[in-house]
# Entry
Amino acid sequence: MKRKDFFLRWGSVFFWVLLTAFAAAQEPWKEVRGDHFIVHHFGEESFAQEVLRRAEQYYKQIGEDLGYERRSAFWQWDNRVNIYIYKTKEDFIKNSGRAEWSEGYADYTKKAIISYEWGKDFLEALLPHEITHLIFRDYVGFRGEVPVWLDEGIAQWEEPAKRKVVRSVMHAYLYDGKGYTIKDLTTIDISNVPTKLAVNLFYVQAASLVDFLVTAYGPDNFVFFCRQLRDGKSIEAALPFAYPTQMRTVQELEEKWKAYVGGSS
# Structure
């Protein structure tokens, strides 16, 4: 055997031995299981159990808010949502391929939430946010285009801390003469918004509009409205279907929302 062939052959064998040994050395995922979620984790079981407890709690609350709880046996048994919790942010970024600023995300196709163990903000912000995205899309569907502000607005609104302050913050924005028209809000590409203030305004206004629609007129009308948009209607065309006696135009929606928030019209 030629020397070059020897090194190629045995070098390849050595590489696969190392790779196999490395893979075998990786700590396997541990699991805790609930009615609607399976939490996969590497860290302390106490944190995973708290994630599971909060997830089940959020599932119930979000389901009640959107009328989803009437759909029995969803997200159970083999259809449970998988939550993957890496031990550190470095592990999460390395294994998920996400950007450095990412704290976690929902994978719609795999019905999973992926993040890392980062305490209070994960439990009280990211977890309900991503669960809402999954429930909302499971309920409304993926055909057509639901505007980003509705998708993000409902997810923001379901974060307990944000729901408490969104109305007062939006009131302050409107008092200062800040705010998007609904037409502008619907067409904005949030990835290209130039300033942090403009981004914050987008998310606050989105949550405020959802707060108004769900609180003032109920979840059934809200979901029906979103389904009209999903099926290809414009906001102007969808409003008379979902809110035939309350508001039939975008202008009426804006006026009633501003009155609800208490801002200037």
